[in-house]
Amino acid sequence: MEDTARKDLIKRLKTIRGHIQGVEKMIEENKECDAVMQQITAIKSSVEKVGWILIKDHAAECIVKNPSDREEVNRTIQKIAQFLK
């Protein structure tokens, strides 16, 4: 994984951690369910985004060893990702 991609994923994960801490505080403060659920939905979306980044951008490295095949694998993964949106 490239250094810039790794840094981006770490940044996203730290943001998710901050959101989780925010939800914890909201629950401690007995905030309304709608507000808490909205934040949980945002967290879920962020976690899914991190997963898709890993799958879409890095799966070819794990699946194939021949660099010429990686582009085809990446195209296929992109099609699958678009279908699942």
TrEMBL record:
Q: Which UniProt keywords apply?
A: DNA-binding
Q: What is the lineage of its organism?
A: Bacteria, Bacillati, Bacillota, Clostridia, Peptostreptococcales
> Mind telling me which PANTHER family this protein's record contains?
TRANSCRIPTIONAL REPRESSOR FRMR-RELATED (PTHR33677)
Q: Which Gene3D superfamilies match?
A: Metal-sensitive repressor, helix protomer
Gene Ontology annotations of biological process type: negative regulation of DNA-templated transcription
**Highest taxon of source:** Bacteria
Q: What name does UniProt use for this protein?
A: DNA-binding transcriptional regulator, FrmR family
The organism named in the record is Tindallia californiensis
Can you provide one Gene Ontology molecular function annotated for this UniProt record? Answer: DNA binding
